[in-house]
Amino acid sequence: MANSNKQRVTLFINPELLKHSKAQSVIEDITLTQLVEKALIAYLPEEIKIVKPKI
């Protein structure tokens, strides 16, 4: 599954959370990648603003 629009990452995650995530992806009939992307999109704000503190 090569996709130039994606980047491979390695995560260390609680085994029970991974097991639950895999099961949920089967229930939703989506890949684990799609499940994680869906969760991150729901969690993260639409726009990130990084403000440099004035010193």
CA(first)-CA(last) distance: 47 Å
Pairing-aware structural class of the strands and helices?
mainly alpha
Could you spell the SSE succession in H and E letters? HH
Query: Runs with pLDDT <50, length 5+?
Result: none
The helix fraction, in percent, is 40-55%
Rounded mean pLDDT score: 92
How many domains make up the coordinates? Answer: 1
Question: Helix tally?
Answer: 2
**Radius of gyration from the alpha-carbon trace, in angstroms:** 15 Å
Strand percentage lies at under 5%
Explain the overall architecture.
The protein has 55 residues and is mainly alpha-helical. It has helices at residues 15-28, 32-43. The chain has one domain (12-55). Helix content is 47%, strand content 0%. The termini are far apart.
Short description:
The protein is mainly alpha-helical.
Any descriptors?
mainly alpha; 55 residues
